[in-house]
Amino acid sequence: xxxxxxxxxxxxxxxxxxxxxxxxxxxxxxxxxxxxxxxxxxxxxxxxxxxxxxxxxxxxxxxxxxxxxxxxxxxxxxxxxxxxxxxxxxxxxxxxxxxxxxxxxxxxxxxxxxxxxxxxxxxxxxxxxxxxxxxxxxxxxxxxxxxxxxxxxxxxxxxxxxxxxxxxxxxxxxxxxxxxxxxxxxxxxxxxxxxxxxxxxxxxxxxxxxxxxxxxxxxxxxxxxxxxxxxxxxxxxxxxxxxxxxxxxxxxxxxxxxxxxxxxxxxxxxxxxxxxxxxxxxxxxxxxxxxxxxxxxxxxxxxxxxxxxxxxxxxxxxxxxxxxxxxxxxxxxxxxxxxxxxxxxxxxxxxxxxxxxxxxxxxxxxxxxxxxxxxxxxxxxxxxxxxxxxxxxxxx
Length: 396
Fold this sequence. Notes:
Elements: H1 3-16, H2 34-51, H3 55-67, H4 71-83, H5 87-99, H6 107-119, H7 123-136, H8 139-154, H9 158-169, H10 177-189, H11 193-203, H12 213-224, H13 229-241, H14 247-259, H15 263-274, H16 279-294, H17 298-310, H18 318-330, H19 334-346, H20 354-366, H21 370-379
């Protein structure tokens, strides 16, 4: 049955539910076309068979409820089918238990049903079981995970192939970049977005495979087309590195990732917009810096401080600038430390405090901030060797 046909049948199910008061009691609201009426009749017959104990019918009804976004109705149907040894129903039931959809979340029940489905040849269950076994972390579980992942991958399951690639990419005795790439490329060719990103990440530096930026870009473009935020962020970085001609492509990719909540993309987009001559772009930059800051991006707080200090994209406000610089500095950002020290030393946003300024200059200098090192050397007549602690002596 085609995917389109399945969607039509699933849509008609919403109308079909009125035939079963125990499921839904709303009155029928729409006249059905001949084809919809046929689909409705077929589904009524399917539900009847399911209630009579037909496991295949229970699986079909349960999976239809899942597609309709009503897993609570799906669970009892799938439980009946799985108990009657239906492997596909068991695999889907395992996923509902794992995610807590339509039932209480239970890793134990998820593994139970994944295990049954895996034993009966369901490759997607093999991949899921392998993933859960790896999460347990024990050596026996890890050995069992390898077994199931290899079996699922050999049956061309893309999730199993991706996870095997990930395992080979990890540090340790099994580390093998070439094998990792071999599994990633198999999964990527079958549309696994994470594998497509992984392939690109190995092609760019030539890790386990020959370096190929053009091919890497192609894989990232395929992954980014699904609106994946990580793929769009990485694609944005590639385009940004290409220079001014690709600037618009970079900004578009960053924007997609930023809208999806990718913290680093929000910061990267804000940096691009902040450098724009357009006032509207600079105002938007402040909004993205604020979102990145809320997400915990350490450098974003500093950039917000600079915006308020300089009145770029927002009204100048030294109090807010100081507040953001303090936040950035206490989070360990060297530029935030340097900017805070400058304002304290100059008495901007509060009374002048040269002692506190010296402490923040010293902290930033210890991290290698060139401006802070220059200030400290000037203050100390070109030598930082004033104590056994060096610059630490000014803030410890």
